[in-house]
Amino acid sequence: MESSQLRSLVADLLLDAGIDAGGIDIGLINGGGNNQVFVVHARAGKYLAKVYYASSSDPRNRLGSEFSFLSYAWGIGLRCIPEPICCCPEKNIGLYELVEGRKMVSAELTRQHIIEAGRFIRELNAGPNRDRTLPVASEGCFSIEQHFALIDRRVKRLQNLPDVSDLDRRANLFVDEIEDAWIKVRHGISSGSESIHVQLAIDDRCISPSDFGFHNALLRNPGEICFIDFEYAGWDDPAKMCDDFFFQPAVPAPSDYFNLFVSEALSYSQNRETMVERARLFLPMFHMKWCCIMLNEFLPVAAGRRRFSNPAIDLEQSKRVQLEKAQQFFNSGLA
User: Tens digit of pLDDT for each residue in 42-89?
Assistant: First the structure.
């Protein structure tokens, strides 16, 4: 998007929100994996503008998911998130409060941080009027059969990788290992379940930030956590939300805190113990899923997103790094 067009769009969004649009200055923020993110300085304050990635091969409505989730969460009084200001679906751009803070690292995570993350999930779901109009989360599933099908598709996509370079061949050999492990995991979960076809009851589903973890959080100066990036948010299986929280590899939460997190996060549910058992049963399954996710760099659609957010990216180096991380992750699991 041209800078003059972006400036005009941001000015229109500010005016639509009843905010003075004078004195605008816009700068690109590096580091986004999927979208183009900008800091906006205006006389009225600082804001964050996000231009969302869109493609015929990946038609997910990232703007719709994030803005509707934040509007719901802000509307029920949560303040550990950025305030949604305004959006333009036609141009795929959203304007938000600019959160001042720093990224977190795994070594600094404490029991209190885990409790705050769990409390966020609980408060999203504890009220009597959860927003049924929110979309299903990206890759949201409500039966074991659906989870299986999703991971089957991920494995199948990886089986069609090119075989040109030595790096490609190493990746293909690793995908064979994942497939063998997935077959065993799938059989184990099927054996431990009464039925893989049963749909999770609506009351047991959760409003999930999706891709939730401390990799999508900023630590504000007073020590408060602000959770960010909700482009995949929506209704989901709470077991998936809990397991993803621990398996996301960027800023992993210590597995010792698994019981603490699920107990706090799922305390909204009248069937908490059943949901906790479901999350435990699914751990090997989501371990396999994240092995596949970490190899997304080898897929053309992921390469398109990376180039959109960072045209200068070295994709070959990115693939090399991700393959090494995925192999280490494959051999780790969640203790």
Answer: 999 999 999 998 888 888 999 999 999 999 999 999 999 999 999 999
Do residues 326 and 295 touch, judged by C-beta distance below 8 A?
yes
Closest CA to 209 of 116, 129, 113, 137: 137
Query: From 3.30.200.20, 1.20.1250.20, 3.40.50.720, 3.20.20.450, which CATH number describes the 3-97 domain?
Result: 3.30.200.20
DSSP notation for 41-89:
EETTEEEEEEEPP-BTTB---HHHHHHHHHHHHHHTT--SSPPEEEEET
Task: Provide CATH code, domain 102-330.
Answer: 3.90.1200.10
Q: How far apart are CA 3 and CA 10, in angstroms?
A: 10
pTM greater than 0.85: yes
Which stretches of the chain are DSSP H helices? Answer: 3-16, 62-75, 111-125, 144-158, 166-191, 238-247, 258-265, 272-293, 300-309, 315-330
